[in-house]
Design a protein that fits this description.
This protein has 342 residues and is of the alpha/beta class. Helix content is 54%, strand content 11%. The protein has one domain: 3-Layer(aba) Sandwich (Rossmann fold), CATH 3.40.50.720. A seven-stranded parallel beta sheet has the order 3-2-1-4-5-6-7, sandwiched between helices. One of its GO terms (cellular component) is endoplasmic reticulum membrane.
């Protein structure tokens, strides 16, 4: 094709992509069904991972829960089983009214949840548990890479082991889990990979160098994977990048921006964050930033001079927003050492 003609075709397609994106703002796309599909969630024992598990359970997915903490993971599984029982009871009550004309595509009694204790920061552990999942449950259709940690130390005060741990769990684990489950998705040309990153994977702040680096890495991995799937023309495999602002899960307890600004930009409620993410996942939205203001912040960071960004950070109190959090973590560490007689 003549390059000039191809240029006009590309221009039209770019403009059409804007039209389609605008249409999705006006007309909400229909959510797809994940009923009966195997959904694996890492870091399912608490926080966003637990809430993702409950949301997928309500949509009748078969759940595989991974977490390093066995007890909290089992607690999440108990909540999922409770949801399954409630749905089964509702289905049993509704069945006589429905009659024989309509049958449930997937009996509620077939819904199950499987738990595995897994340290996603250890490659061998991920691969061995993944093999068990394939044998005991089946092939994974929806992979939610959610597990995350934060060290809570300034760079020069952070032990190398904690830096490595942050990178392994927040970034490298995405490589291991995806390599474990992507081959079957490619074979079937069906699946969905969700990367739970952070707004700190799009722009950074002071005091959390290891965390920002790990989340930037997760975002880069996700975007490159998305392009690779497009290049391979595997349009049946969807990807969604989740980048929330500060979420009130306790992970960054103490983090504060300027007090005059905070009422307009408070920490996100975890339930709201997950509901927004679920809407994006079930409508095959490639990326979701919560709140929408994060899109603007990312855009401005990309076009403004660095000194202008610094001025904005200082005005918002975002330049040192992590310092109270780090101070609390340091105090907690000192208290634990004193308690243990160290």
């Amino acid at each position: 094709m003549n390059i000039l003609l191809e240029f006009f075709v590309v221009t039209f397609r770019v403009l059409w992509a804007f039209v389609l994106a605008a249409a999705k703002w006006l007309v909400r796309p229909k959510e797809k069904s994940v009923a009966g599909q195997v959904c694996l969630i890492t870091g399912a024992g608490s926080g966003l991972g637990r809430l993702f598990a409950l949301e997928f359970a309500r949509r009748r997915a078969l759940l595989v829960l991974w977490d390093i903490n066995t007890q909290s993971n089992e607690e999440t599984a108990g909540m999922v089983r409770h949801i399954y029982r409630e749905m089964a009871e509702e289905a049993a009550t509704a069945a006589p009214r429905a009659g024989d004309g309509e049958k449930d595509a997937l009996p509620h009694c077939n819904l199950q949840v499987y738990t595995y204790t897994c340290d996603v920061g250890k490659r061998e552990n991920v691969y061995s548990i993944a093999e068990r999942v394939r044998k005991e449950v089946g092939e994974v259709s929806v992979l939610v890479n959610n597990a995350g940690v934060v060290s809570g130390h300034h760079l020069l005060e952070c032990p190398d082991e904690l830096i490595e741990r942050t990178m392994m769990v927040n970034c490298h684990a995405h490589f291991w889990t995806t390599k474990a489950f992507l081959p079957k998705m490619l074979e079937m040309n069906h699946g969905h990979i969700v990367t739970v990153a952070s707004s700190l994977g799009l722009f950074s702040t002071a005091g959390v160098e290891d965390y920002c680096a790990s989340k930037f890495g997760a975002v880069g991995f996700h975007e490159s994977l998305s392009h690779e799937l497009k290049a391979a023309e595997k349009d049946g495999i969807k990807t969604t990048l989740v980048c929330p602002y500060l979420v009130d899960t306790g992970m960054f307890r103490g983090c504060r921006i300027r007090k005059e600004i905070e009422p307009f930009l408070p920490p996100l409620k975890p339930e709201y964050c997950v509901k927004q993410a679920m809407r994006a996942i079930l409508t095959d939205q490639p990326m979701i930033c919560t709140p929408r203001l994060m899109y603007m912040v990312t855009f401005m960071k990309s076009i403004l001079p660095f000194e202008a960004v610094v001025c904005m950070y200082r005005f918002l109190g975002a330049d040192k927003c992590m310092y109270p959090f780090i101070a609390q973590r340091k105090q907690a560490t000192n208290n634990n050492e004193a308690k243990n007689g160290i």
